[in-house]
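Below is how a single chain appears once it has passed through the pipeline. First comes the sequence as given, then the structure the pipeline wrote out for it. We keep one example in the README because the format questions we get most often are answered faster by looking than by reading.
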Amino acid sequence: MAGKRIDDTTRQKIKEAHASGLSMRTIAREFGIGSSSVDRIVKEEGPQNGWSGKSEKKGKTERQLKIEALEKRIDALEKKILGLKARQKP
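Resulting structure:
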């Protein structure tokens, strides 16, 4: 049984939501469609999304960028702690 057709604008919004890190289940709820439809749309290949295959790097999600920023901050704090410990030793 075929459902209603999902327009290209909605398809693009779904792909953007997935790229930003939202789960397929959350996206499905937000757009009122099945999670299998979201999965199929995310996996689509074609000229509208500019995906050329495995060799193209995906952009980092907001979550990945936050993790990298936190890891850099942790490294800086660890270096600071080591520096303080080195000064305390006679």
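Residues 4 and 33 are 10 Å apart (CA to CA).

See the next section for the split statistics.
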